[in-house]
Structure formats: C-alpha cells, structure tokens
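Quick one: co-fold with iron/sulfur cluster.
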Amino acid sequence: MEAGEPPDVPEGAVARAMSLTRPAARRALPALLRDVRACTICAPHLPLGPRPVLQLDATARILVAGQAPGRKVHASGQPFTDASGDRLREWLGVTPAVFYDAAQVAILPMGFCYPGTGKSGDLPPRHECAETWRATLLQRLPELQLTLVIGQYALAYHLPEAKGSLTDVVRAWRDHWPAVVPLPHPSPRNNLWLRRNPWFEEELLPRLRRRVATVLRGAA
Ligand code: SF4
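Sure, here it is.
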C-alpha cells in the first residue's frame, strides 16, 4: 500500500455486505433502504464518512442514474442539491417538487456516498457500491419507463454495449430511445462541452422534456 493511500476495504466487509444483500433481495423495500442507509462498507475510503444519498420508491417511473454525491449533497443528504441539480431539473423540465417525489423519480447514483476529491475534481464513485446494492435496488423499480444515464460511470453500467466516447454515446441517443437516455453530467464543469455540442440543447433536450412529461403523466 502506498503512503497516504487509504486502507483496503477490510477483509470480510464485502462478504458481510453480500450476505446482507442475499436476504436483502427478499426484504421489504423500507427495510432494504434502511440497510443501504446504514451501510459502511467502504468507510475507510470516504473522507467525510458514509452518508448514502439516494431516493427510491417502487412506483417511480423515471430513474436518474448519476455519479456520486459531491460535498454539498453530502452536507444536505438530498441528491442534486447543487448547481448540477438546478441544471438537470431545467434539462428535464421538472420542478423540485416533482424531482424530489420518490413516488415519481428514483435517484440512484453509482456511488451513494461522497468519495472525496482528487486533483481534477471529485473522485470516481466507490465501486463497492454498485457491486453491493445496485442490482437489488434496480429490481425494486418495476414501473420504470425512462432511465437517464448521467456521466461515464453510469454509462459503463447501464449501457455497457455503447461504443465510443461519452460524446459519441450521447450523440447517438436515438439508439436507446425512448427507454434510456444518455446524458453528460450537468455539472458547471461541463460548460465547455455544452458550448461545443450545441445539438445537445437544440435536438435532444426538447425531446427529452416531452418524454419526461409523457412518462410523468403515466401516458408512456
Ligand atoms: S458508497 Fe455505497 S457501498 Fe460505500 S459505504 Fe456508501 S452506501 Fe456503502
């Protein structure tokens, strides 16, 4: 282990989590969510400690598959309470009231806890999180009509067959329409990407807003 590198996940921690997730697959959703919110699997790697941030109800028809909380979201305990969230809600054409209604919108980042910051921004989501929880939680969304896949980590999980750069995959959004829509991260860090790819706001966003409205009306 390099100096300064956080210790590996303690041996047995993932095994314990997996033994948790096996019965978890059969647990009632509130109990499963309590398990997730009490999770400490990768605590040694998390500079601010575990604070899983997610939103899910079995009736949700839209899934926001994001990256991981930043510092502001870690502090608030609610997903997308930052500039990225403001932009994402504008992209979707939804109010905060709709966005934060778990009965309509599920929000599952690839990592539920703030992973820390590196030289060029937030670190990647902890891989243990998707390995431990994601499949079990996705099974609890039987009404899902639309999955918004945000950023490279969610793309790798939800669209593993998609080829090319994130720009290539987003530009080929019609390949996955209407069930899955790949999106760049709405972070202000991506302002340059948005300026370089005006087709995103001109072509995709108007269609995305109409699709979101249709799904929320239950008319999909
Ligand atoms: S990131 Fe996920 S796996 Fe890691 S402690 Fe948080 S909830 Fe658990």
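If it helps, Residues 1-16 have pLDDT under 50 and may be disordered.
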